[in-house]
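Deliverable D2.4 — example input (structure tokens):
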């Protein structure tokens, strides 16, 4: 069976061989026996990659058996981190969202900070070294300058993240001025969310050229753009993002779909949203993207079940159907 080798979110290589899950990849695995979900957790960005549907129940059972023999390293009422041999298992204990989301996104924010420090620290150290050398040469007149270096490195990092191009299927074209938009993370800051049918999310883009609202992204493109734009804004717009507050906002709104609708109703650009509401939106979009992916996998499974039940009568029909299913693009996961 097919399983991805790289993280769908950051493209980093996923380590490990999946251990008892039989996935063939993953060193940290998360599973939810209640919802029959299984993920490989990326060590670089801490995001959860949903495993394909094939035999997922058997794989989850195998994981649960191994986890029962492991050592519980940390646990809340909702999630337990279990060490077994050289694997980590994250067991979702109860389908309650608040604490689960808090834990999961707390990990993500920590990973984001680590990623940032990996850039900011070496640049700062190198720049301070240079400044000291220059200072000594110049006779000690640059003392104040050194204190600005960490902030400078931070600024540079934010710029780099903001310049990352957004992964969309086709670059959108501005309806007003006809420009092909080379969308970058920082452009998304000026976009705003609009609600779609069935609770899905769309994004109205402000054209960097004519500054009018001239293009719209939907589906996976909207998810990708939102994720990247919100990651950039978390750096660029100062303000503490407390995971508990954001999780409570999602819960208070009545769930991810309602939160997206609430944000859409406000008609604010992403950069004008309060920090914790931005994080809440990020959580809601993730949930939404995951559910969409699950639905797609269920549909495929249903189609295969139809074939097995002999609803396609002739051999030609059957072969055509199989060919069509095989032609589906691999790695059908959101990329960012
Ligand atoms: Zn990753
Ligand atoms: Zn335009």
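Example output (designed residues):
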């Amino acid at each position: 069976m097919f399983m991805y080798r790289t993280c769908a979110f950051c493209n980093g290589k996923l380590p490990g061989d999946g251990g008892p899950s039989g996935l063939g990849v993953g060193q940290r695995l998360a599973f939810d026996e209640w919802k029959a979900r299984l993920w490989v957790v990326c060590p670089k960005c801490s995001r959860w990659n949903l495993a394909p549907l094939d035999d997922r129940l058997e794989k989850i059972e195998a994981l649960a058996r191994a986890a029962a023999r492991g050592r519980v390293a940390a646990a809340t009422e909702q999630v337990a981190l279990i060490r077994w041999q050289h694997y980590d298992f994250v067991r979702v204990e109860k389908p309650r969202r608040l604490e689960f989301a808090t834990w999961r996104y707390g990990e993500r924010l920590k990973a984001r900070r680590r990623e940032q420090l990996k850039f900011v620290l070496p640049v700062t150290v190198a720049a301070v070294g240079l400044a000291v050398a220059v200072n000594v040469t110049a006779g000690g007149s640059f003392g104040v300058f050194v204190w600005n270096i960490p902030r400078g490195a931070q600024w540079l990092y934010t710029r780099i993240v903001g310049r990352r191009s957004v992964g969309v299927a086709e670059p959108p074209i501005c309806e007003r001025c006809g420009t092909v938009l080379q969308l970058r993370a920082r452009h998304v800051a000026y976009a705003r969310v609009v609600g779609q049918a069935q609770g899905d999310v769309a994004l109205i883009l402000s054209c960097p050229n004519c500054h009018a609202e001239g293009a719209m992204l939907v589906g996976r493109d909207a998810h990708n753009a939102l994720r990247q734009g919100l990651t950039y804004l978390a750096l660029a717009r100062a303000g503490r993002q407390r995971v508990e507050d954001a999780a409570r906002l999602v819960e208070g709104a009545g769930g991810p779909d309602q939160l997206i609708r609430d944000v859409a109703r406000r008609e604010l650009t992403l950069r004008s949203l309060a920090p914790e509401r931005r994080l809440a939106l990020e959580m809601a979009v993730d949930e939404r993207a995951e559910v969409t992916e699950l639905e797609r996998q269920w549909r495929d499974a249903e189609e295969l079940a139809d074939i097995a039940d002999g609803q396609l009568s002739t051999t030609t029909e059957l072969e055509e159907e199989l060919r069509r299913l095989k032609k589906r693009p691999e790695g059908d996961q959101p990329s960012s």
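The radius of gyration is 23 Å.
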